[in-house]
Structure formats: structure tokens, C-alpha cells
Specification:
Blueprint lengths: L14 H18 L8 E4 L2 H7 L1 E6 L3 H4 L18 E6 L5 H15 L3 E6 L7 H22 L1 H11 L8 H10 L15 E3 L2 H10 L4 E4 L15 E4 L2 H8 L19 E3 L6 H5 L1 H13 L4 E6 L7 H16 L3 E6 L4 H13 L5 E3 L2 H10 L10 E4 L4 H12 L4 E4 L11 E3 L8 H9 L10 H13 L2 H15 L5 H10 L2
Parallel strand pairs: 2-4, 3-4, 3-5, 5-6, 6-7, 7-8, 9-10, 9-13, 10-12, 11-12, 13-14
Antiparallel strand pairs: 1-2
Helix pairs in contact: 1-7, 4-19, 5-6, 7-8, 11-18, 12-13, 12-17, 14-15
């Protein structure tokens, strides 16, 4: 055990915690199978993410399936990874949050003239790397959905798991050890190219590989040791988050913490927001205020999370808003992501309550439909469902829609930080509570609403009255002037700084 990583940031962890953490990780390694050989990666110009942001996707040189263009069926030409004026965006397609943050970074890099390569550990589908992550994701998603159905499980088990088991410094030991399993994906990436990690497993693996500059994007507003990657530069979205991570607050496990994170290793960056959203804040807020003045129907965007835990809540919202929809006072835009199974649950409830809807499941047509909303004369009504098999479209539809909605209903996840008025519904895990706290304190979102009666009351107020929505819009504008939403741009600048 003496050769292992046992003193995160110079702090002592109890021997029993060190032992049990490495024991659990070694068990996982046995369960997941043999360690992979180094992956030989090349870059291809694939998918909408390339068209939108000139992001090149990293795939294995011998993976002809991954290299095939889904639109033409032809093998795409590849290029070697070029470290000049470029960076690697490392993420895991595990839920929507890590992917959305990666897109925000790609957007910012594109704006600043930096070429980006996308490394998604889940994309190497036939490797033990992806299989192990998929196994862990399956459990997380299942428990997340169960937490929304079973109050006792949520309060007694899941709230504690998502806030306490990842809180203390021994968690960073566990993530570091587990990340050794993912290092083969980095072996042949030039070590001099900066890597920005949207997940700690990516960050740890890059550090273990010897990558010279690693930036770890921390999304959570609740300080959790799970996100810490020693050897990297950490970026934080909020001042309270900065204080908590800088001082390792409440992260003791056994002996008292004596050393903090060095000030050069942690930076308050701001919210991780796509440049297209950031650049259009003034325009989009004016359009919202104009719709309020013109007494237009409220455009309400509902977004399904990556675990797909909100189907029944969406059904309740649609049922409550039915009368407002019929009276042209509200329009629902419901993005189900790629959750076909969860859509069937919602569909059953909509049909049961005779709520009509329009389905949008073709990405090209979805983009055209959303583009029509740019015109202030466009009037949309009813209920619109968005469901896309392509993961990029499933996630990015929300980004496109939020520019043209009046307010968004979401759990307090990564979307807590986006520049659009928000109504926060019940969290999926206690760690998300601090996202709602951040949004409500800076004025661009509500407090977290956890019961149907309160939710209905807040919905009624926002739809029938103007003051709450106007206040949220005004604070979005003020926050923009304070550069609160400049985080993704700042992260790219930090990564590219010599």
C-alpha cells in the first residue's frame, strides 16, 4: 500500500479507509475484466458536433464502424492528432450533464479559434473501458429513477449516497485508483496537448498518463472530493464552490485536514455556458420581455435528465397546464432526450388525459422548427415532444430550445447554471440541491420545488402573473454584465495559457 496514492493534497487518510477503498477498486477491476492495451487513436470529422463546432472525434484507428459516416455510409478520412493550437475535451457519455458541459467547452473553443478533439470514454464500445462505465451508469440511472418513485429510498438511502459517500477525501483515492483502468485510452495522445476533463475519471487517467496540462471542470456546487484530481488545475462555477473546494470543507475522513488545495491549482471561472447562448442573452431576454408585454402564451421548456427520472412529474405538469394550453396561455416544449422508454410512460399519461401533442424526432426538421421561433411573429401552441436517437441531438435540443422559451423546468443539475429563467423541480440526489441554491441566490431561478401542490402554485403564478418571470429575466441580464456566464470561455483560456 506504500506505493499507492494515499495522501491527497498532502493530507492523511485513515489506514482502514485507504485499505477498503483499494479493496473495492481491485474487486471492480476483477469484475470488469482485463486491462486494455493502449488505444491507437486518430481524429475524424464526424457528426453534428463537427458541423457546429469543428470538433474532431477521437476513434481507434482500426474501428471502421466508428469511422463510418452515418449519413453517407462511407468511411471518413482521418487525421493524426495535432497538438498545435488545439485541446482535447475528455468526457464520458454518462447522463447528459458531462456531455452538455463538453459541448459548452467545444463552443467556447470554436469561438476562440482553438481546435478541439473529443475523447468520450464511452465511445469505445467493445472495450472493457466502456463496458465498465456502462455497468456503473446502469446502476446509477436505476437508483436515480427509484429515488423518484420511492420516498423512503430517496430520503434514507439515495440522498446520503449522493452527498456523503463522495464527500470525503478517501473518495478521491477511490476515483484515482479506478481511473487506472482508463489510462490506455490516453497512452498515444501527445502529452503536450492540453486536456480538459468534464469528468474526474478522465482527469485522473490523463494525470496518471503524464499529460502535461490537465484542467478539471468541476460542475457541482456542493464541494465533493469525488471531483478532485490532484495534478490538475480545477475550475469552479461559483464563489461558494470555490471556497468549499479550496479549503476542502467537510472532507475529513479520519485525521483532520491540514493542507488546502494550492491557490494556483484552483480557479473561479464562472458558469460553463455555450458561446451561442452567452452571446445572445440580451437578444433572448428582450424577446421574453416582448412576449410578456404582448400577452403571448408562456413558452415552457421541460428537460428530461440523463437518468430519465422525471417522466411522471412531466405528466403531472402537463395535466395541470392542460387548461392553460387550451386557453392559449401556455405552450409546453418537452425534450425527452433519447429516452424512448420514458416517453412511452409520458405518452400513456398524455393519452389518458386527452392531451394532444406534436412529435419532433427528426433532427433536421427539429432544427428547422426551432429556427422558426427566432421570428418574433412566430406563435406556437399546444404540446411539442422532442425525442432523438442521436445522443448529440438528444442533449443539444435543450440548448437550442432554451433560447426561445420563457422559462425552463428542470431538476437542479448542470442546467442550474444556464442563462435562462428556471423553475427547479425535485433534485435527483442531494448533491444537486446546491445547484438550485446557486440559481435562486443569483436570481435567475426559483428555489427547489419538491411537492406537487407547491409546484402547481408556482406554475400558476408564473403563467398568470408577470413579476416573478420579469425578475428572473432582469437577473439573467445583470448576471451577464457581471460575466457570470463566461466560464467556458475562461476554461479554454486557462487550458491554452502557457
Amino acid at each position: 500500500m506504500s506505493n499507492k496514492y494515499t495522501k491527497p493534497f498532502g493530507n492523511t487518510i485513515s489506514k482502514s479507509s485507504v485499505f477498503f477503498n483499494y479493496l473495492s477498486v481491485n474487486f471492480c477491476k476483477l469484475f470488469f475484466g482485463k486491462k486494455e492495451h493502449p488505444l491507437d487513436l486518430v481524429a475524424i470529422p464526424k457528426g453534428q458536433v463537427y458541423k457546429d463546432f469543428n470538433v474532431w472525434t477521437l476513434v481507434r484507428r482500426d474501428d471502421t464502424k466508428a469511422m463510418t459516416d452515418p449519413e453517407t455510409g462511407k468511411i471518413l478520412k482521418y487525421e493524426e492528432i495535432n497538438p498545435k493550437k488545439s485541446l482535447v475535451i475528455g468526457t464520458i457519455r454518462m447522463g447528459f450533464g458531462h456531455w452538455r458541459i463538453a459541448i459548452a467547452l467545444a463552443s467556447a473553443a470554436h469561438k476562440l479559434g482553438v481546435k478541439s478533439y473529443l475523447l468520450d470514454l464511452m465511445s469505445f464500445s467493445d472495450t472493457s473501458i466502456a463496458k465498465s462505465i456502462k455497468f456503473l451508469e446502469g446502476y446509477y440511472n436505476g437508483f436515480s429513477r427509484l429515488s423518484q418513485k420511492w420516498k423512503w429510498f430517496n430520503e434514507k438511502i439515495w440522498e446520503k449516497v449522493t452527498s456523503k459517500t463522495s464527500l470525503t477525501l478517501d473518495s478521491s483515492l477511490q476515483q484515482r485508483a479506478l481511473s487506472e483502468f482508463f489510462v490506455p485510452a490516453f497512452r498515444k495522445i501527445p502529452k503536450e496537448i492540453p486536456l480538459v476533463a468534464a469528468h474526474p475519471w478522465v482527469g485522473h487517467a490523463a494525470v496518471l498518463n503524464g499529460t502535461k496540462k490537465v484542467v478539471s471542470m468541476i460542475p457541482d456546487n456542493l464541494p465533493l472530493a469525488f471531483w478532485l484530481v490532484e495534478g490538475s488545475i480545477h475550475t469552479i462555477q461559483s464563489p461558494s464552490g470555490y471556497m468549499g473546494y479550496r479549503t476542502l470543507i467537510n472532507m475529513e475522513k479520519g485525521p483532520a485536514i491540514e493542507k488546502c488545495i494550492a491557490k494556483d491549482d484552483i480557479i473561479y471561472a464562472g458558469h460553463y455556458i455555450d458561446y451561442e447562448l452567452k452571446a445572445n442573452i440580451a437578444k433572448d431576454c428582450k424577446a421574453r420581455l416582448d412576449r410578456i408585454k404582448a400577452k403571448r402564451a408562456r413558452r415552457i421548456l421541460l428537460t428530461m435528465g440523463g437518468a430519465g427520472a422525471q417522466a411522471l412529474k412531466f405528466a403531472d405538469i402537463a395535466k395541470y397546464c392542460h387548461k392553460y394550453i387550451d386557453d392559449k396561455k401556455a405552450t409546453l416544449l418537452i425534450n425527452m432526450g433519447d429516452h424512448e422508454g420514458r416517453w412511452q410512460i409520458l405518452k400513456e399519461q398524455l393519452d389518458k388525459n386527452s392531451i394532444k401533442y406534436v412529435m419532433h424526432d427528426d433532427w433536421a426538421k427539429t432544427q428547422k422548427f426551432i429556427a422558426t421561433m427566432e421570428d418574433p411573429k412566430t406563435i406556437i401552441s399546444g404540446v411539442h415532444i422532442f425525442l432523438h436517437k442521436d445522443f448529440y441531438g438528444a442533449v443539444y435540443a435543450t440548448n437550442l430550445l432554451m433560447r426561445h422559451c420563457d422559462f425552463m423546468i428542470t431538476k437542479p443539475s448542470e442546467l442550474s447554471f444556464y442563462p435562462v429563467p428556471k423553475l427547479f423541480i425535485q433534485r435527483v440526489g442531494r448533491h444537486e440541491a446546491w445547484g438550485a441554491i446557486r440559481g435562486s441566490e443569483i436570481g435567475d431561478g426559483t428555489k427547489e420545488v419538491t411537492t406537487p401542490d407547491i409546484l402547481h402554485r408556482v406554475l400558476k403564478t408564473i403563467i398568470e402573473e408577470d413579476d416573478l418571470l420579469q425578475m428572473n429575466i432582469n437577473f439573467v441580464q445583470l448576471n451577464d454584465k457581471a460575466k457570470i456566464y463566461d466560464g467556458a470561455l475562461e476554461v479554454v483560456r486557462i487550458a491554452m495559457k502557457k
